[in-house]
């Protein structure tokens, strides 16, 4: 469902993107080309700051938001998702937040009030809250990162996880084309 927010903003979605019919895209949202938005995704840009202003939620080209992902923002803050980024099933990205290019955010993870650098891999059931991650960090499963966390304890992304992340992007890019071909059959 594509709908306006209370301020009257309507999402801008590339005709080359695929948005599942069960997804809800609301408000000041920009979805670039070849993005896959899976079943039951919610992207909601509807809150304003104290001046009545709102920054957009932007989903970069060739990215994928898998089943049940939620993206929202507090007080009209910006959310930027980079290019070729994968956000896996049931994850939450809450603004203010920016996620770099070629990032993988694993199943059921939460990212809030942070910047995630390019080529980071955040595995399943992680929380990254109020502490920025530099490029190419690997966050092991079930890790909670916040103020005071020692980033030196985190290794760079091992090659096998970079390859996995790239394969997820490739698979979901193929889904965009496949679902778009099938969309007229329903």
Could you describe the 3D structure shown?
The chain has a single domain (2-185), classed as 3 Solenoid (UDP N-Acetylglucosamine Acyltransferase, domain 1), CATH 2.160.10.10. It contains 1 helix and 19 strands. It has one helix at residues 159-182, and strands spanning 2-3, 12-13, 18-19, 24-27, 29-31, 36-37, 42-45, 57-59, 64-65, 70-73, 79-81, 86-87, 92-99, 104-105, 110-116, 121-122, 127-129, 138-139, 144-145. The longest helix is centred in the last third of the chain and has 24 residues, at 159-182. The two termini are 16 Å apart. It comes from Vibrio porteresiae DSM 19223. This is DapH/DapD/GlmU-related protein. It holds the Pfam family Hexapep. InterPro entries: Gamma-CA, Hexapep, Trimer_LpxA-like_sf.
Could you write a compact summary of the structure shown?
The chain has 186 residues and is of the alpha/beta class. Helices cover 13% and strands 32% of the residues. It has a single domain (2-185), classed as Hexapeptide repeat proteins (UDP N-Acetylglucosamine Acyltransferase, domain 1, 3 Solenoid), CATH 2.160.10.
Write the layout of secondary structure elements.
Elements: E1 2-3, E2 12-13, E3 18-19, E4 24-27, E5 29-31, E6 36-37, E7 42-45, E8 57-59, E9 64-65, E10 70-73, E11 79-81, E12 86-87, E13 92-99, E14 104-105, E15 110-116, E16 121-122, E17 127-129, E18 138-139, E19 144-145, H1 159-182
CATH fold call? UDP N-Acetylglucosamine Acyltransferase, domain 1
Quaternary structure classification: single chain
User: Which blocks of ≥5 consecutive residues have pLDDT under 50?
Assistant: none
**Assigned CATH architecture:** 3 Solenoid
Question: What would you call the shape?
Answer: globular
Distance between the termini: 16 Å
Count of distinct strands: 19
Total of helices:
1
Average pLDDT rating: 92
Rg over C-alpha atoms, rounded to the nearest angstrom? 16 Å
Helix and strand content put the structural class at alpha/beta
How do the helices and strands follow one another from N- to C-terminus? EEEEEEEEEEEEEEEEEEEH
Question: Helix amount, in percent?
Answer: 10-25%
What is the beta-strand fraction? 25-35%
The tally of structural domains comes to 1
**Would you state the CATH class?**
Mainly Beta
